[in-house]
Amino acid sequence: MKIIYFDCFSGxxxxxxxxxxxxxxxxxxxxxxxxxxxxxxGYEIKAFKTEKQGIKGTKFEVKAPHEKTHRDLKDxxxxxxxxxxxKKIKDDSKKxxxxxxxxxxxxxxxxxxxxxxxEVGGVxxxxxxxxxxxxxxxxxxxxxxxxxLSFGKGYVKFSHGKxxxxxxxxxxxxKNIPVRYADIEGELVTPTGAAIITTLAEFSPRLDFKIEKIxxxxxxxxxxxxxxxxxxxxxxxxxxxxQDEILVLETNIDNTTxxxxxxxxxxxxxxxxxxVYLIPVIMKKGRPGTILSVICNIDKSNELSSIIFSxxxxxxxxxxxxxxxxxxxxxxxxxxxxxxxxxxVITDGKKVHISPEFEDCRILADKNNIPLREVxxxxxxxxxxxxxxxxxxxxxxx
Length: 398
Fold this sequence. Notes:
Oligomer: single chain
Distance between the termini: 31 Å
Order of helices and strands: EHHEEHHHEEEEHEHEEEEHEEHEEEHH
């Protein structure tokens, strides 16, 4: 599987993304050819080599005439829809602009339809966003990852006045993702860059893959502390394996009843824990106890930790970060003669495994007064009758 990793040590912007892709192997002629499919005229793009503190990179620029009118989300969507670009490129681009509009609407306290794009509604910003999506498509990237984003300090001027860095829309776009503040003067993360990367990428500080190409996209500023560059690393990882980083919360408990532990397990799962398990142990002074382990996404850490503290009375938690590899999976709805049920569809190389959702099957079994295993068989039969049996491998249940 081909992946790309954005190393945002010096922030990220739309032009830096395209510059890094060009530096990493994207042909500008191929980019120009695709951009011509947009109903936009009067602009030019160019790319050239430059140097930032001794490191060579590619600077991407869009030259467009100044526009007095400002586009809203409907205008942008109309431009994208009128193009002859591929459906995936259109869909990803629309998602980015929608997230931008939602962020602006939240900041200004107005409806999304009343937002008029200023800096990000010009031809240059449209080309930056569409160009980034097009570039990733041309490079045939299967998965996009990013490091935490680096914010600078100081102030930035735009149409509404002067605001502290990062800009309000940028902060809104970066909710629930890892960020860090650098002691560097300047706007390192722009709204355009934030919208692109937070829409398309998964965030992980660690990855396991073979690097094949490296590209550097140059920013406009010259920073004193570090080179103003966005680094991308393009490579291959094991076929069909996805990666992310998870957190394990763990504590030893010796003064909580089994009823409380059962209730706690259900509550943690309901609040977003990926898994919860209990291990019986012998603790100090020969007292029987339990190790509570909770697997969760990093953004759930504080909420789940608070539940554990309040429900168990424990005074400490151990935390461990783990790099997780997982097979690609998706949820599909299957229609059977007993009713509808969800199925987890897992891809393993060229094979497809399915796992019917237990809760759905249990409801159908009770509703139709039939054995649970009969529902499972019917769901599996209905699924394969629709998608075909080539390369199938039905996961056996214990």
